[in-house]
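Key result, reporting period 2: structure in, sequence out.
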């Protein structure tokens, strides 16, 4: 970590600290205060957007650990979200479980399914692993459709909202607080997981798995661990999503979502927790901008089909631009901006 002049480490604990200066602590505190004050100023529509962004960040953080840090490409992430969503939904709707008991079960169920579909990563990688994870998406969907008596099949399943005693998280603001607290915990855990022994092993496997194995890293164990952790995050995100809309249906977890999650990592920056957050926020805000601009194009004589497809076009265009001109993502550009001002006026 680049630090201001005069800030240095006196022990290993300080060297591993995420926040090192008073200004960093002040900025974090100010951000959290502003974040949790949003329901006081924002409309229900804005709170819905922020809530969906928070849920998506949780899911993409899991993909970041799996793909960005360990190098195991997965394009079936939406399927693992569906596992967590339906596990939580069935436990609450059919068995009468509390949301707080069903949430960890949903995470573990998604992680267990991730272990099953992570087994091919021990023998294959690259394009072949991509195909295996795509198959996971469709296999999971097929199982959910076949278990109609339990999951509701194509009709979906009504899911109760979370509650604490007599208080039900029914309003937009109350669920916003729930999601943001879990999102902050997820970010904290993800940032620390990547700094542990397992996190360093993930990076070694991503950079060169043969060299990592020669160094004594157990590829079998750590690849499966990466799949498990990544799918646990997906399961939590899926559970939060279906309880937010109070209904579980397969339409909430289309295959294209898995592709867009990978695109968010590309835009934000692979192998970086901050990059995952920036990628989600930027593409989600782009979607909202398209919703505003799309009707304007129609009023200027643009074909309705073009206005309707503008969201897909803009997402694809942004991803292509980043792949060509900024393959390291927004987080790399942000680091360069910070370095420039840190060294100014000698930024050359």
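The corresponding designed sequence is given below.
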């Amino acid at each position: 970590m680049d630090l201001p002049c005069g800030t240095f480490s006196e022990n290993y604990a300080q060297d591993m600290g995420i926040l090192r200066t008073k200004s960093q602590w002040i900025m974090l505190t100010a951000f959290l205060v502003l974040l949790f004050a949003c329901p006081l100023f924002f409309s229900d529509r804005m709170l819905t957007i922020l809530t969906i962004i928070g849920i998506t960040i949780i899911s993409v953080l899991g993909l970041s650990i799996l793909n960005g840090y360990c190098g195991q490409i997965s394009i079936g992430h939406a399927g693992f979200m569906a596992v967590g969503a339906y596990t939580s939904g069935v436990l609450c709707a059919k068995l009468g479980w509390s949301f707080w008991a069903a949430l960890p079960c949903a995470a573990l169920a998604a992680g267990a399914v991730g272990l099953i579909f992570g087994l091919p990563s021990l023998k294959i990688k690259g394009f072949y692993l991509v195909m295996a994870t795509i198959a996971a998406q469709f296999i999971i969907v097929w199982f959910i459709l076949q278990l109609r008596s339990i999951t509701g099949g194509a009709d979906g399943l009504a899911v109760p909202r979370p509650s604490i005693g007599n208080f039900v998280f029914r309003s937009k603001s109350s669920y916003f607080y729930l999601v943001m607290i879990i999102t902050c915990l997820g970010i904290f855990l993800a940032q620390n997981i990547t700094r542990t022994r397992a996190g360093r092993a993930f990076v070694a496997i991503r950079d060169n798995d043969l060299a990592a194995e020669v160094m004594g890293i157990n590829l079998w164990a750590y690849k499966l661990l990466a799949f498990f952790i990544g799918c646990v995050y997906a399961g939590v995100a899926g559970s939060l999503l279906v309880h937010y809309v109070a209904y579980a249906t397969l339409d909430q977890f289309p295959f294209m979502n898995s592709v867009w999650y990978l695109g968010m990592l590309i835009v934000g920056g692979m192998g970086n927790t901050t990059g995952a957050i920036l990628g989600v926020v930027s593409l989600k805000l782009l979607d909202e901008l398209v919703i505003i601009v799309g009707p304007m194009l129609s009023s200027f004589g643009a074909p309705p089909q073009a206005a309707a497809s503008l969201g897909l076009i803009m997402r694809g265009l942004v991803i292509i631009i980043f792949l060509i001109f900024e393959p390291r993502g927004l987080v790399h550009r942000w680091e360069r901006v910070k370095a420039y001002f840190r060294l100014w006026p000698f930024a050359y």
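The two ends are 20 Å apart (CA to CA). The chain is about 70% helix and 0% strand. This case is discussed further under Risks and Mitigation.
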